[in-house]
Specification:
Helix content: 10-25%
Strand order of the largest sheet: 1-4-3-2
Number of strands: 8
Order of helices and strands: EHEEEEHEEE
Oligomer: single chain
Length: about 130
């Protein structure tokens, strides 16, 4: 009998249908700092990754309502603040400024931006209590 192999998934991409592929590519490159080519827009060795696809019909572009389309994490609040400053300086469309939420385990901090088609990308980090 053969032994089952547990496969580790290394990375994933969020697939986004966009209204104007070239404008979206430029936004993801200039604003989010992604490396963009004909296959994907990635940052930090697939820490953040997207597959941007030109929509054939604009009605197919459907950002999630009331929540994120993608959510990414950084190590700590200092890095999160630096990322917010970077994205804001680069011209990101800000949905929510960094805000704190306290939990029993510690403090969560997050902010979100949106792209040209209304897809919302959230970014967060947690600081645990000692």
């Amino acid at each position: 009998m053969t032994e089952k192999i547990k496969v580790k998934i290394e990375n994933s991409l969020t697939v986004l249908l966009v209204s104007e592929l070239e404008k979206s590519k430029k936004y993801y490159e200039d604003v989010l700092g992604c490396e963009v080519n004909e296959h994907w827009a990635i940052r930090d060795d697939f820490g953040l990754g997207f597959k941007l696809i030109q929509a054939k019909d604009l009605n197919d572009i459907r950002p999630n309502k009331g929540t994120w389309n993608t959510y990414a994490y950084v190590n700590n609040h200092t890095e999160l603040d630096a990322l917010f400053d970077e994205l804001k300086t680069n011209g990101a469309i800000i949905v929510s400024e960094p805000n704190l939420t306290e939990f029993d385990w510690g403090v969560w901090k997050e902010f979100s931006i949106r792209d040209l088609d209304g897809y919302v990308i959230g970014f967060g980090s947690g600081n645990k209590n000692n």
